């Protein structure tokens, strides 16, 4: 398998594991992942800026985080409980390698949202176009995805549901600690997600 397919398989496995925490047979429940995609697209436009009547500067870092969130929903749409993750990853790699772009980022984002609204699908071609226009690589996607997914698991394991989880440690929110942990690691390492979890655990107040 190529390096990108390997990363996509890891992300598919992690998404399935997280969704299973919500419902054991989640792919049979008909959750509206497509709706989550277009709602996120709309929210992302506010971070990118679309209002012509005032000066706005794109918050690139926040846009990338929103794209990572959309990818969570996109993976959930692709997992059907039958198709092997390796096959799904291969399909995604081929689609991501052929980005479709409109005139600018906003219009490409609307292609992604349109597919979610009208076809209830995840348009990986348009997603790749958004990535390209915002300067985001597959490695950036992988780093952001694994980090966010691992943080979600970490929160669940440390009392998020019962309210005992501590979100601010040593004057920083957990997502700030996450960024620092992820930046210190090699995304190509086979145990990258385990290292992210262990890095968070080492920082978390006992």
Structure report:
With 206 residues, this protein is mainly alpha-helical. It folds into two domains: 1-136, Type II deoxyuridine triphosphatase (all-alpha NTP pyrophosphatase fold), CATH 1.10.4010.10; 137-206, no CATH class. It contains nine helices and two strands, in the order αααααααββαα. Strand 1 (168-169) and strand 2 (172-173) form a beta hairpin. It starts with a helix and ends with a helix. It holds the Pfam family dUTPase_2. This is dUTP diphosphatase.
What distance separates the N and C termini?
40 Å
Strand content: under 5%
Strands of the widest sheet, in order across it, are: 1-2
Number of E strands: 2
Quick one: overall form?
Answer: globular
Low-confidence stretches: none
Q: In the CATH classification, which architecture of the largest domain applies?
A: Orthogonal Bundle
Q: Tell me the count of domains.
A: 2
CATH topology of the largest domain: all-alpha NTP pyrophosphatase fold
**Share of residues in helices:** 55-70%
Structural class by helix and strand composition: mainly alpha
- Give the CATH level 1 class of the largest domain: Mainly Alpha
Helix count, DSSP H or I runs of 4 or more residues = 9
N-to-C order of helices and strands? HHHHHHHEEHH
Mean pLDDT: 91
CATH superfamily of the largest domain: Type II deoxyuridine triphosphatase
Largest sheet: 2 strands, antiparallel
Oligomer: single chain
Rg, please? 17 Å
